[in-house]
Amino acid sequence: MAISKHNLENNSQKQAVIENYCQALLTTKQFNELISFYRSSIPSPTLYIESLLAIAHVKLMQFNEASAIYNKLLDANYYPAQCHLRLGNIEKIKGNTELAINHYKQSLQLDNKLGEAYWNLANLKTYVFDNEDICNLEQLTQAAKPHLNSAQFFFSLAKAYEQQGNFSLSFAMLDKANCIQKSLTPYKPSDFYSRCKKHLTEKPVANNNSDDSVQLIFIVSLPRSGSTLVEQILASHPDVDASYELTEINAIARELESKKRSAMPYGLDELSDNDKAHYAARYMNFIAPLRGENKLFIDKQPTNFHHIALIKTLFPNAKILEVTRDKAATAWSLYKHSFSEGHAYSYDFTSLAQYINDYTDLMSHWDTLYAGEIYTVDYQNLVNDFSNTVAELLRHCNLEMHENCINFYNHQRPIMTPSSEQVRQPIYKDALTQWSNYKVHLEPLLKLLK
To answer: Can you tell me the distance from the alpha carbon of 115 to that of 103, in angstroms, rounded to the nearest whole number?
Structure first.
């Protein structure tokens, strides 16, 4: 970022320098800054800069603005297949499934080798691949090279075979997809878990200047465990604000870790009162434009399970909700999913089991350290005893029961996770047992889970 800014200061008229600076702003997640720079300092933006601007608007959940730009790029014939792909993603986020399908189909008409478009169709849950789709995917997998686009062919074909009830062939495709992904993003285990258990044996001294005008609710879990459903139920309440999967806690964690103040994670034992107040204020400033008028605000980010000690240090009054699900179902859901980034552990049975076991151990450690301060929502209970489980959840959050929470699937809010379609329909029980269709193939994985 510093280099691109320096180059801009010395070559402010060069188009390549301007583009590089805009890309740096986007990469460092300075979305508002990119939009401001675009409006104030770029009289003749290139189409490439326009495409970066569209991404920034999506990240800020400004979907109308993003759609307008993508349609403008379509008119200019600027990577039209990609534009239709992005427009499809926006419609999916907004809950317009048929419009999303239309855009994905148009992107494939323009580029029938676009793996992401096939995967997005597969990930819609409601889309059923026809014989032509399957024939195309089979041909594409036969000529596949080891890169993400090819992995998405295999993930998509696995879904198509699953729809046909051919679970053995489906698993064979998943095995190939995950082998490709693993080769591209090998998993590197972290010593963070052991450091937490070794050094965080007592509660760190908490921020004594925390902002009590907002009740923060952090939802953590393993990915694919039902956290989006819990978020949707709470976000349907008229007294609650929610956004998308925020990364600010993780950004603060990375910054503190980089300082290496002590052996303790984040150097919590070396943080001054001013440090704690600073980082708490930084987080509150970050969420300010994402909030409405309500006192309760949800931060649903599964991977924040790593950072519970940091969260409780900065915000001692924050509520932590952990969503749990049957480990076999969770592991299977992770293994069959192609993530756009991160989650390198999910592409191999050994690393997947290690991640789930590390999660279990760390959450057990947090439960001991913060006894009574972490509330568990069991996905199975939510499905099998919905009304009572929701009532208990709302009571824990000091909320009155509201019919909107029971009819959560009617709540029209943008949802930017792969589970967006599931939470727009009433509770169903199929997801509890889907993994059992693959039980024979999953035995090596199940034996590794604690």
So the answer is: 14
- Token pair belonging to 314: 């900065």
Q: Is the pLDDT of residue 1 over 80?
A: no
Which residues have a Cβ under 8 Å from the Cβ of 401 and sit 6 or more positions away? 390, 391, 394
Please give the model's pTM, rounded to 2 decimal places: 0.89
Kindly state the DSSP code that residue 224 receives in the 8-state scheme: T
Pick from 184, 217, 252: nearest CA to 377: 217
- Alpha carbon 78 to chain centroid, angstroms: 28
pLDDT at 420 > cutoff 70: no
Distance between first and last Cα of the chain: 43
Q: 397-433: b or e for each residue (b if 16 or more CB lie within 10 Å)? A: bebeeeeebbebbebebebbbbbbbbbbeebeeebee
pLDDT of residue 138 exceeding 70, the answer is yes
Instruction: Return the DSSP state at 288.
Output: G
Low-confidence winner among 43-47, 69-73, 81-85, 145-149 (lowest mean pLDDT):
145-149
Rounded average pLDDT over 229-239 = 93
Q: Which of 71, 44, 46 is nearest to 57 (CA)?
A: 71
> Does residue 370 have a pLDDT over 90?
yes
Question: CA-CA distance, 349 to 362, in Å (whole number)?
Answer: 20
CB contact at 8 A, 178 and 288: no
pLDDT at 357 over 70: yes
Q: What are phi and psi of 215, to 5 degrees?
A: -95, 105
pLDDT at 331 over 80: yes
User: Roughly what angle, to the nearest 10 degrees, separates helices 31-41 and 47-59?
Assistant: 140
Structure tokens at 412: 């029209």
The contacts found for 137-141 with CB under 8 angstroms, 24 or more apart, are: 140/113, 140/115, 141/173, 141/176
- Dihedral angle sign, alpha carbons of residues 101, 102, 103, 104: positive
Taking only the tens place, the pLDDT of each residue in 201-228 is 999 999 888 777 899 999 999 999 999 9
- Helices 273-287 and 248-259, interaxial angle, to 10°? 150
Nearest to 220 by CA among 324, 291, 340, 316: 324
